[in-house]
Structure formats: C-alpha cells, structure tokens
C-alpha cells in the first residue's frame, strides 16, 4: 500500500488549500521530515490521511472528528480531503467532507452540513477519474472495507501510520491481538474460521451426545418410576426391575450402545401382565355398579313420597287462606263493574266540556275583533245566537267585497305611476351610454388600422425562417452521430492506452515467473540433496536401505545438510511458481482478446466517420439560433394578431352596444308619453297610495272579523250536538246525570290494582283445587299410608356410590398407568434409536477439533489459526532483529516466547526482548522510552519487509512515524536514521514527524508547517 498525493482545505489548523505530493518526497534517502511549532497542525496531516481512508481521525480515544473543521474556514468554505493512493496494484482517489455546523445562509443560527464522499478508480495518477465507483459515505466505506483496503484502521495505525500514543502498540500487543493483525496482513483468516468451525461442530456433537444421554436417562427413570407405580396399584411384585433400578445409580455421562441394548428385555413386561390386571378390575367395577343402582332407586322412590306429602300439607294451608279473603274479593269485583259502566260515558262528558271551553274562547276573540273593526261595525253588541251571528257575517262580507273592488281599480294606476320614474332614469342613462359606446368604437377602429403594417412585416420574416428550419433535423442527426463517434473514439483511445500499459508489464511478469521457476528448481535440488545426505548419515552396515532395500552401502553421500529446508517451503515455492505461470498465461490470453477487440473497434471508427466536426457544430449552432429567432417571431406575431382581434371585437361590441342603447332610449320615451296620458284620463287624485293603504287596513280587519264570526258559530253548533249525545249515553248507562257517572269512576292505578288482585285470587284458588284432586295427592289421604325412612335410604345409597367410584378410579388408574408405561417405553426406544444414530460420526469430529485447538497432537500446543502464523512471525522477528541489533549495538534481540505475564490461554505469539549482555529476557513494560521506541521501530520495519516480500501479500510502501525521536540520544538517533535510510532500498518511503532540530540538517526533503496568527497554518515543501 502506498500513499501518493494528499490535498485538503479548511481542515484542522489549515484555513486554505494545501497539497502534498508524496511521490516527490524521499526519492533519494527514502526519508522526509514533517516539522513545525507545537499545535501548528503536523498531526493534522495524519488525521487527513486516516479520515480519507477510514472516515475517522488517527486516535479516536483522544481526538474527535469535530477538530477536522478548521476554525479559520469561511462561512461558505467547504472542508474537504482528497487522497490518491495505491492498493492491491490499483490506483484510487477518494474525496471526503466531514459533518460540521455552518452558519445559515438566511437568518441567524447554524445548520448541519452533512458528510459527503466519492471514490474513483484511476488508470494512472494524472488521468481523468471519470465516473465514481461510489458516491455516498456508506457505499464508499463498504467499497473500501470489503474490496480495496487490506488493513483495518487499527492495523493501519500499527503498520503504515504510527501516531502519538500508538507507535508501540504492536510491540506491546497481546498474543491474541498480534494474531489478529498478522492474520489480516498475511491472509490466513481461513484457518481461524476452520478452527472455529471444527471447535463449534465438536462442541455441538459433545453437547448433543450429553443431551441425548441425559434424555435417555430421564426417560429410563420415567419408565422405572411408572412401572413401580403400576405394580403398587395392582398389588404385584416389583422384583423384575430391581436390577435396572440399581443400574440407574451408576450410569456414565455418555451412554454406549451395549448398555442401551441391555435394557430391551424390560420393555416386554407390560404386555405380559396387562390383560389379567384389566379383567380383574373390570369385574369389580361391574359388581359395585349393580349394588349402587339398586340402592339409588329405593332412595329416589322414598324422596318422591316425602315431597308429595309436603305438597299436600302446603295445598291445604293455602286453601284455608284463600277462603278467608273471598268476601273482600267480591266487594272489589262490584267496584270494578260500576267503574266499567261509568267509563262508557266518560269520553262524551270530556267532549262536552271541551266544546264549552272552545265556545268561550271564540266569543272572547269575536268581541276583540268587533272593537277594532271599521265603522259601523265597531259599535255593534256581541251576538249570542246563531241567527244574529249569520246576519252580522253577511253585512261584513258585503263590505269586504266592496273594498276589494275599489283596490282593484287603484292597483294598476299606482303601478303605472311608479314605472314612470324608472322610465325617465332609463332614458337618461341610455342617452349617456350611447355616446360612450360610439366613441369607443371609433378609437378601436383607429388602433386596428395602425397594426396592419407590423403584422405583414413579421409574416414575411416568418416564412423565411421556417424555410431555413427545414434542414435542422438533418444537421442535428449529423451532430448526434458525431458525438457518438467521438465517445467511441475516446473509449477506444483509453482502452488502447490501457492495452499498451498491460503489454509493457509483460516482461516484468515473465521475469517474475522465471525467478519463481529458478527458485523452486534450486530449492528442490538442494532439498533432495540435503535429504540424501540425511538419509546416508543414518545408514548402518548390514541394515537394508529404506530406499533401495540393499544391505550394502558402497558409496553413501557425504556433506553438511541444511536441516532448515522443509517440504512445506518446497511446496510453497512450487505453488508460487505455478500461480505466477498461470497468471502470465491468463494475461497473454486476455491481451490477445483485447487486441482482437481493438482491431474491430478501429475498423468501426474508419467506416463511421461523420465528417468535419467544426462545420457540423457551426451549422447546428446557426440553425438553433435561427430557431430561437423563429420562436420570437411566432410570439410577436401571435401577440399582434391577438391584439388586432381584440380591437375588432371591441369595434363590433361597441357598435352593437350603441345600437342597443339607442333602442332602449326610444322605447323609454314612448312609454313615458303613454303613462302620462293614462293617469290624466283616470281622474284620480295624486294621493293614490294613501287611499290604497287605508283600504288595505280595513280589508285586513274585516277578514279577521269574518273569521271570528264563523269560528263562534261553529263552536256554538258543536256544543249543542255534544249535549244531545251525552244525555242519550247517561240514560243507557243507568246514571241520573253526569256527576253520578264521574263519581263512579276510579283512578287508573286503583282500577288496575283491584282488577289484578281479583284475577290473582281466581287463578290461585283454581290452581289449588286442581292440585288437590290429582291421584298422587289423593293417595296420601289414605288412612293406611306410612312414610318411608328417607335418611337411612340416602346413607345407604351414598355408601354404595363411594364403593362404585373407588372401583372405577382403580380401573381408570390401572388403565392410565398401563398407557403411561407403554408411552414411556416408546419414548425411551425412540430416544435411544436417535441417540445411537447421532453418535456414529462424533468421535472423529471431536478428535479433529482437539487438534485444531492445540489441545493434543500438536508439538507447540498452539491453535491452528496461531500455528499457521508461527513461521511468518519468526520471519518478522528475523527481519526486525538486524535493525534492532544495529540500533542497540547488539545488546537487544526480539524472540518468540510461550508465556506472557497475562493468563491468556493462547500465548504462542508472545514476544520477549532478550538482553544479550545478561542473557535474560526483559518485560516490555520494563523498557525505557528510548528502548521502547527503537524496539517498536525495528519490529515495524521487520513487519513491513516481510509483508513486502510476500508474493500476493500486502506491500507497505509508505510509513509515517509521529513519536519517539526526542527520547533518543545522539548516537542512538544516528543508528535509527541509518536503519530508516536502509529501508529505501526496498522502495519504502518513511515520513518522520519530530521537533528535533538536528533532523532538519540530516533529511533533505521536508514539509514545514508554518503557523500564522489569525490566518491558520500553511505548508512549505523543501527539497524535491
């Protein structure tokens, strides 16, 4: 992984835009220096790199992403970071903005600016990025984490960027933490997944076997328990299961097949005894049931006789009470009959009273109407007979008809007089509007005449422009073909450049394959030579050779064998050669396919050339401008035509309105003359309205008087007829007068009470007599009748019922227990069959899991996931120790340890620092600050070298160190600088962040952070 270029703006201490091209730094020595005052923003550069890749700052525990937004940024200035980097052999560019608060554009307060991100894949560093492969923070993070970045943020901060507080984390890491880092770097996670899978499957198998055994034991205990309960219920011996019961007390945690099959004879016991037990208990139930039924029938017969005798006693007492109340009931019966006769005439009495009230009301209203009526009726006395009422009604009616005739004559004259004023106002308004409409028509005609020349000019221009637009579609189609052609041409050029780049890489691939072939061949030859030497060294005279079988060894090989050569390393080199050769062959095939595709593409470009691009674009642009001009002419012409039509419509409407007003004026003047002549010929005075109002008031009063006269006459007639009907009804009901009938009437509640009481007595007496005459009651009146002893019979039936229920319960219990025993046997057999089937493959799986966990069969007693990393870890330590030896003057050495001060189970990747001067190991926590720094640095350099050397692994080509130089003395610092410079030979570039002044004279390429008060920091690149 290599950091190429970093750009950022308004981030941390920097208010403006800054750019760092890391490819131009450290090109000679492999080192560059970042220096500046405390707080100026040196660590901000590391934060910007980490934020671009992981959307976070370098040390989250001590920092916050809120510090990314610069305090020196303007309100409209965007805080952003852009990073170009190389990972897995591919170039990428990422652009991010953090989430921060900014002032609102309108109003006061702040608003939240959301985070943004985009990611591109580049063909080369200076190439156009094209379309983004991800353009949202979530999708960018997923793409980086799953496909691009080889390290997590934590691992990145231990191998690439070593910020303050985290530099020595890999050195001080536990064995488990170190394993996680090395797994990610060397890609051995599959072994941990295999280890976990083996362990989980073995755990499941063991758990399943224990659970199955527990289930079987539980079901066996259920079987023994249910059998004992059944034997106790039937009174049988329980000796059949004594042996099995004893076995239960000493069962193992996991059962075996022989033990389970030894229980099978006990499963046949229920079938042997069940029929005899059920037959015996069924016969007992049948006998007890017959005895209980006989006792129950006797008890029920005695109970029935006892209830009948109690009923006879109650009926005789009830009869006596009813006879005592009979006299009062008869009195009530007479009152009810008298009330029912009076009720026949009550309605006619109420009707007569109502008519009397109606007559009084009508006479009162008639007297009031007479007093307010016009003369001469206002002085007339109140008429009381039907004859006087009819005579007065006739006179009033005649006067009302005369007044109606007079009103009929006045009405048309008054209406004509009212219309005369309206007609005069209409004539005046019509004359005025006639003049206005005539003037408007003349002005509109004048305006319309002025528009005609303008419209003619626009029509001529419209025809010319429309003729030119006939060729626009062809020109536009030509331009679209041109754009398609240019796009295809650009894609072809990009593909061709990429093809050339891939072809240029072929020699390097071929050399890599050749080196891999040579390395594998040489290692194989050396391995077999060493194997032959080792084999020859173990040959003994007279013993057969394990290879050829000969017992004589005339010419055995001699020499010093390298015992570090292994078959595993030989296999790895061969696999590496095979993989490289396969990759080269596939690359050749891909390039041949790409060459054929490019040939097809260039033929297409030659055949589909549309013509000169400038001429086509100029022609389309001209026609587009002319189209805009044509659209403007259409709009102007439409506007003028609309305005002309408005003028024509206005002339037509004004002329029509003027003629209409002229006709209204002539009509109004003619009606005025006609009405004036008619009023003059009638001879009426000018106060026609006063006369009309007076007559109308008299008419209303006369109409009210006529109505009251008729109502009074009707009420008098109704009262007379009602009195006649009442006299006839009293005679028929045998009442002397209405007062006697009213006295006989009862209140509704009282009447209902008497009637209910009489009816209830009749019903009760009748029911009493019917019951006394029944056969079962008459039988009890026999002098020889004797009641049986119900209490004794009940006690006997209860005792027989209890005996019967006990026998039934015993039978049900035995039946249910037999079912329970059968069910327990079935469950036990099913569980045993499933258990035996499940444990067939468990033993090999558990043994394999024990090996994977390092619990047995492993020389280093390490889990599989750790074991596969031991050689790599040794390589890292072997690569780190030369650096550490040079820096420490040969005093210190890193080595793998099998123990840590912690109590962790897996300690195979534990680390120790050996002091060669005392030949003792030192705790990491006991190292001084300077010792901790250069031990951590040596380990980081060794890790980077091993990773870079790994074929197909992660190449760490950039490193940033932000800690430790101030803890070193001059001699140690010189040794550290020499070790760092040596890393440049492998193509790695190391950036140092330090305050030490002497480093500025030792390192040529520098990034100087310049702090400016009130403006924020800026960068100055020194050297390349």
TrEMBL record:
Residues 295-325, 413-447, 623-657, 695-722 form a coiled coil. InterPro entries: P-loop_NTPase, Rad50/SbcC_AAA. Residues 5-222 form the Rad50/SbcC-type AAA domain. Pfam families: AAA_23, SbcC_Walker_B. The keyword Nuclease applies. GO terms for molecular function: exonuclease activity. Keywords: Coiled coil, Exonuclease, Hydrolase, Nuclease. Belongs to the SMC family. SbcC subfamily. Heterodimer of SbcC and SbcD. This is Nuclease SbcCD subunit C. It comes from Varibaculum cambriense. The lineage of its organism: Bacteria, Bacillati, Actinomycetota, Actinomycetes, Actinomycetales.
């Amino acid at each position: 992984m290599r950091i190429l270029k970093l750009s950022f703006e308004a981030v941390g201490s920097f208010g403006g835009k800054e750019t760092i091209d890391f490819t131009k730094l450290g090109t000679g020595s492999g080192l560059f220096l970042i220096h500046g005052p405390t707080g100026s923003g040196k660590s901000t550069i590391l934060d910007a790199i980490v934020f671009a890749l992981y959307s976070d700052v370098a040390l989250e525990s001590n920092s916050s992403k809120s510090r990314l937004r610069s305090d020196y940024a303007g309100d409209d200035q965007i805080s952003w970071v852009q990073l170009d980097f190389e990972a897995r052999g591919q170039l990428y560019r990422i652009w991010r903005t953090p989430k921060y608060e900014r002032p609102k554009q309108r109003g006061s307060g702040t608003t939240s600016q959301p985070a943004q991100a985009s990611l591109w894949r580049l063909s080369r560093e200076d190439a156009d990025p094209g379309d983004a492969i991800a353009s949202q923070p979530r999708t960018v993070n997923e793409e980086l984490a799953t496909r691009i970045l080889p390290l997590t943020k934590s691992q990145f901060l231990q191998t690439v960027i070593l910020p303050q507080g985290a530099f020595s984390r890999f050195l001080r890491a536990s064995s488990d933490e170190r394993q996680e880092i090395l797994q990610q770097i060397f890609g051995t996670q599959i072994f941990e997944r295999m280890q976990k899978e083996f362990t989980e499957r073995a755990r499941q198998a063991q758990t399943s076997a224990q659970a199955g055994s527990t289930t079987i034991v539980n079901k066996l205990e259920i079987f023994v328990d249910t059998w004992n309960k059944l034997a106790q219920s039937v009174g049988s011996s329980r000796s059949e299961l004594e042996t099995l019961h004893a076995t239960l007390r000493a069962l193992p945690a996991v059962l075996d097949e022989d033990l389970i099959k030894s229980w099978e004879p006990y499963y046949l016991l229920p079938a042997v005894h069940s029929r005899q037990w059920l037959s015996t208990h069924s016969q007992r139930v049948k006998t007890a049931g017959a005895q209980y039924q006989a006792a129950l029938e006797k008890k029920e017969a005695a109970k029935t006789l006892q209830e009948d005798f109690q009923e006879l006693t109650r009926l005789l007492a009830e009869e006596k009470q009813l006879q005592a109340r009979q006299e009062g009931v008869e009195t009530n019966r007479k009152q009810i009959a008298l009330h029912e006769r009076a009720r026949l005439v009550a309605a006619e009495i109420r009707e007569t009273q109502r008519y009397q009230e109606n007559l009084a009301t009508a006479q009162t209203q008639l007297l009031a109407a007479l007093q307010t009526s016009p003369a001469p009726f206002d002085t007339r006395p109140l008429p009381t007979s039907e004859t006087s009422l009819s005579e007065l009604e006739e006179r009033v009616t005649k006067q009302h008809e005369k007044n109606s005739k007079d009103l009929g004559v006045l009405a048309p004259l008054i209406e004509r007089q009212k219309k005369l004023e309206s007609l005069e106002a209409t004539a005046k308004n019509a004359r005025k509007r006639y003049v206005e409409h005539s003037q408007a028509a003349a002005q509109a005609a004048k305006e319309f005449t002025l528009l005609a020349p303008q419209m003619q000019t626009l029509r001529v221009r419209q025809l010319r422009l429309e003729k030119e637009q006939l060729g626009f579609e062809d020109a536009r189609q030509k331009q679209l073909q041109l754009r398609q052609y240019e796009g295809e041409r650009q894609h072809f050029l990009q593909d061709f450049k990429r093809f050339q780049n891939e072809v240029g890489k072929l020699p390097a691939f071929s050399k890599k394959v050749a080196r891999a072939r040579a390395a594998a061949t040489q290692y194989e030859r050396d391995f077999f030579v060493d194997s032959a030497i080792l084999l020859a060294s173990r040959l003994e005279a007279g013993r057969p050779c394990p290879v050829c079988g000969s017992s004589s060894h005339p010419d055995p090989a001699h020499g010093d064998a390298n015992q570090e050569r292994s078959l595993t390393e030989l296999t790895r080199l061969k696999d590496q050669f095979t993989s490289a050769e396969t990759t080269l062959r596939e690359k050749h095939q891909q390039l041949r396919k790409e060459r054929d595709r490019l040939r097809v593409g260039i033929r297409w470009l030659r055949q589909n050339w549309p013509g000169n691009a400038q001429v086509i674009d100029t022609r389309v642009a001209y026609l587009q401008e002319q189209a805009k001009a044509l659209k403007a002419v259409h709009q102007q012409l439409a506007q003028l035509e609309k305005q002309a039509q408005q003028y024509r419509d206005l002339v037509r409407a004004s002329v029509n309105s003027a003629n209409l007003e002229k006709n209204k004026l002539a009509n109004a003047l003619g009606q005025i003359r006609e009405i004036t002549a008619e009023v003059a010929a009638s001879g009426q005075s000018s106060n026609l309205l006063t006369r009309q109002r007076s007559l109308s008031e008299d008419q209303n009063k006369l109409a009210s008087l006529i109505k009251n006269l008729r109502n009074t006459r009707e009420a008098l007639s109704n009262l007379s007829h009602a009195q006649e009907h009442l006299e006839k009804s009293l005679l028929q009901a045998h009442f002397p007068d209405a007062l006697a009938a009213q006295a006989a009437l009862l209140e509704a509640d009282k009447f209902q009470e008497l009637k209910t009481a009489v009816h209830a007595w009749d019903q009760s007496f009748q029911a009493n007599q019917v019951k006394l005459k029944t056969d079962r009651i008459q039988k009890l009146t026999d002098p020889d009748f004797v009641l049986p002893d119900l209490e004794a019979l009940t006690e006997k039936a209860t005792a027989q019922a209890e005996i019967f229920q006990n026998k039934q319960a015993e039978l049900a219990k035995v039946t249910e227990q037999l079912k329970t025993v059968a069910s327990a046997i079935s469950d036990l057999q099913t569980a045993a069959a499933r258990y035996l089937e499940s444990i067939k493959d468990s033993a090999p799986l558990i043994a394999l899991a024990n090996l994977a966990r390092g619990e047995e069969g492993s020389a280093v007693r390490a889990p599989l996931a750790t074991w596969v990393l031991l050689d790599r870890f040794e390589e890292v330590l072997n690569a780190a120790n030369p650096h550490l030896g040079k820096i420490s003057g040969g005093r210190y050495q890193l080595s793998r340890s099998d123990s840590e001060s912690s109590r962790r189970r897996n300690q195979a990747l534990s680390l120790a620092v050996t002091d060669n001067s005392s030949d003792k190991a030192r705790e990491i926590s006991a190292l001084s600050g300077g010792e901790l720094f250069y031990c951590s640095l040596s380990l980081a350099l060794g890790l980077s070298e091993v990773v870079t050397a790994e074929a197909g692994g992660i190449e760490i080509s950039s490193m940033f160190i932000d800690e430790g130089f101030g803890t070193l003395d001059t001699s140690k610092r010189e040794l550290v600088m020499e070790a760092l410079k040596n890393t440049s030979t492998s193509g790695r570039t190391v950036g140092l962040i330090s305050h030490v002044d002497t480093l500025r004279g030792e390192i040529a390429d520098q990034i100087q952070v310049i702090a400016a008060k009130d403006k924020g920091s800026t960068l100055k690149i020194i050297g390349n």
